[in-house]
Amino acid sequence: MQGYTTMFLKAQEQFSAQGMIKPTHIFVQAGVGAPAASVAGFYHSVFGRDAPKCILVEPEKAACLFESMKYDDEEPHNVIGSLNTIMAGLSCGEPSPIAWNILKETADAFISCPDYVAAKGMNGGYLYMFGRHTTAPRRFSVSFSFVKGLEIRTGCKNSLFYRVFFTIHMECIKQ
User: How far is CA 14 from CA 10, 19, 21, 120, in A?
Assistant: First the structure.
């Protein structure tokens, strides 16, 4: 998990170069939680209690981190049943114990999304880059679509989105 932090260090350097101290919110997709724990851990190590809000977005049928929070016993819990989802790479159903120990202390919210949220991003419904509508890879589309849907529903038109499409999809919102 430590290897992911290089990515966040580079992203943070770019934010700083543009005059941003830090992102206000980070929306990140989660499977077993390793990349999500890396981003939450990184920002908490840099900013402490002033870290950006970290919101995890998981597929509804494989939302093991969301379910673990619902139990409120500080233990990771597996999802039982079909893990069938269009969000390739996130259909895990079993949290990483190491990631869980970080996320239960650092994540601010856990969100479970149905497949149609990710499908909106995958079919280009929300994703506009390089002057044209495009598609997001399946594992990235859920967090992007969730944030874009919030922007549309709340009427927030002044958001500035930074996208980092590596193994993780991080959203930085500046109002």
Answer: 6, 9, 10, 28
